[in-house]
Every structure is written in C-alpha cells, then in structure tokens.
Amino acid sequence: MTLISGPPRRSGLAVLPPQAQAQMPEVARKGEERAGLNRCRTHKYLVPEVIFGVGTVGEVGNVLRRKGGCRPFIVTDPGVIEAGWVDHAMPFLDDAGLSWELWHGVTPNPKDYEVDSGFEVFRESGCDVVMALGGGSCIDAAKAIAMLSTNPGNVLDYAGIDKVQAPLPPMVMVPSTGGTGADVSQFCVITDTANRLKATIAGRSLVPDVSITDPRLLTTMPDDLSANTALDALAHAIEAYVSKAADFLSDVHALAAIRGISEHLLSSLADPKDLVAREGIARASLQAGMAFSNALLGATHAISHQIGGALDLPHGLLNAILLPHVIRFNSETNPERYVDVSAALGLGEEFSSPRDAADAVASHISLLSDKIGIPPGLAAIGVKHADIDVFAVNALNDAYITTNPRPVSEDDVRRICVSAL
Ligand SMILES: [Fe+2]
C-alpha cells in the first residue's frame, strides 16, 4: 500500500503552485487542457499497518509490545465482554508480559461525558498505549482518550480538521463489527450532548498505528447490529466512490467493498457462524474504511450524524435509510459514478442513462434494506417532521457535506429528510 506523507487536506484536492504550473512545458500543458486532465492533483493515501485473518486476535500482545507499550489501556463495552472476546484476548496480553487496564464505559454514539470518564481512568492508570476491542463506538472513544492524553482541554475543542497538534500514544484497534472503518480512518465522531449533535474530529494523527481484524469477532454480533453495520459499510463505500475527493487509490477499495458486501451480506445474516461470509464482510468493511478515510463521505453521513446525535439512534440504521434518498438527490445532477456502483452491486443491466443506473442503485439498496429488516423510513424509528429544520442547519456544518458530489443547501437536506420519513 502506498503511504504518502504530506500536509493534511480537506477535500483531497491539491494543485501545483502557480510558479510550478508556469514551468510546465507548453506542449504538455496544452495537451492536458485538451484531454481535460488534472495531472496537477496531488494524491495522498493514509492507512495503518493492517493485520487481517482468522485468529489474528492472538497477535495483540506482541503488537502492543512492538509499539512500545508496557501498560495498555483497553477500551471495550459490555456486549463485547458478554460475547467472551475480552476473556479470549486478554491472556495474549498476559503472555506478552503486559499489565493492562480495562475500561468499558462506552455506549453506542459515544458521548462527550463518557470520553471524559474514560480519560480520568486513563490518567490514573499510568497506561502508555491504547487499544480498542469493539465496534466503532469503542474505537472512537479510544481515539478521543488517546487524543486527550497528550492534548489539553475538552474533546469537543478538537472538532474540525487537524486541530490535534501533539502526537498521540500508539493506538491498536481490534474491530468487532463489520462496518465501522474507524480502525483505519483518520476520523473520530463524538456526540456533543449539550448541542445534541455529533462532532467529527479529523486529522492524520487519528489514524491508528495498527488495525487487527479477526473475522471470528463478527460471528457474535446480534442480527440487527450485523445488518446495520454492513449497510454502514456499504454507505462508506458508495459515498467514498462518488465523493469529490475520490481518486484512483480510494476507488479500488470502494468498488471492492461494494462487491464484497453484495456477495456476502445475505449469507452472513442467514448464518452468523458462516466464517466465509463473515470474512467477506470484514474484508469489505476494511476496504470501505480505507476508501472513506481518504476520499471522505457525503450527505448521507452528514445528515445521519445530526439525527444520531440528537436522538441517539443507531448510526448504520440511519445511513441505510438515508442512502437511497441521497443517491436519488445526487443523481439529478451527478449520476455518472453510480454506473460503476451498479456494476459492482451486480445489477448487470444495460441502462439507458447514468441517471437510470443511479436510480437502480437506489432501488436496489431499498429492497436490500427491506429484506434484512431495516425499517422503511425515519418516522418508523422516531424521527419527527418538526426536527428536520435543526438537522438541515447542522448538516451543513458537517465536514462530509463538502465532498458530496452535488452541492447541498439547507432546503436540499429538508427535502432529503422529508422523502426519507
Ligand atoms: Fe458510517
């Protein structure tokens, strides 16, 4: 995997400075203009060290040691403990001679006050490395605690892009769901409970050092969590592929993720112990995470963050409901990239236009969601029409709105939410 360092970016787009452009040979510049090429764009791709495969939880002790840890701080939640994965993993830390501290005070949509509590435990513990064993909520909380260990102030002070200045302690992430992508991403999403919205903290220092995916962990997810997180991964892949910041590096992983989810979703839900299907979903989740960490996302996530923050609803479930409506909105002006998405989903038809292909993608996702038990609209999960105005205002402040392929106004968000009710 190519890892190119450089200054942080908001949109993934960069151009040569005017002086460098002026130094380009005239023939080359005119040739590029004729071909409509943008060879001046700089491409950057950030990913952690990735360890993937059945049984790889067994590597956690050695990995933490290798990263310089003596006393790991483990962030997990009661569901992961109940499923037996903490009892399974901790002996590997003992075998490596590590004295660990466990904290399990995270809930879905991790809250700012939970991060504060976790950080207090971390500060008293003398820990020197952070590990998450759990879903996206555990991983985001672990990132936030690691961030506060070297950066002053409150977690919400760092909402936005590249506000984290001091280096973080080593972070090792072990995802237990097939959809988060947080184990490889440069994002951390924390609920701002006072303002009832989700704050996105973004920056290269939030990319974990090591991601360890053991597909066996996915076999103990409850059915609704399996469905929600897989649809979240599908939303990551599709939004990354159509993003304004997509490039040849993110495209490879986005399309592979769409194909993988399409191939393995139904079989993984029909038999949760089907390790081939679970490995397929884990692989797709990883690839979708790599894609969206670099290409960013779009209006689906920008809107779902606001609804999830206000009403504490499952993130993947909201994305599953919103995604077809955002695709139909985008396809009115920017349908072209959905042609490749339709092929990756295996829709296999000859469409008369890109708009038709995009509409087919939206319809396919709605049918798929219905088949796996996703409610038909936002109203069915408690969203009220009266809430939509607040979501519309807040969604335009979300970082992911900037890379949606079609510009989005407050009225557009209202229209999308009303259609999704
Ligand atoms: Fe997501």
Characterize this entry briefly.
This protein is α/β, with parallel strands linked by helices. It has helices at 18-22, 26-35, 60-66, 78-82, 85-95, 112-125, 136-150, 223-242, 248-270, 275-295, 299-311, 315-331, 338-344, 354-371, 388-395, 410-420, and strands at residues 49-52, 72-75, 101-103, 129-134, 160-161, 171-175, 187-192, 197-202, 210-213. It has three domains: 10-42, no CATH class; 49-217, Rossmann fold (3-Layer(aba) Sandwich); 225-420, Dehydroquinate synthase-like - alpha domain (Dehydroquinate synthase-like, alpha domain, Up-down Bundle).
Helix content: 40-55%
CATH superfamily of the largest domain: Dehydroquinate synthase-like - alpha domain
- Spatially, the strands of the biggest sheet line up as 1-9-6-4-2-3
Q: Which structural category fits the helices and strands?
A: alpha/beta
The global form is globular
Number of helices: 16
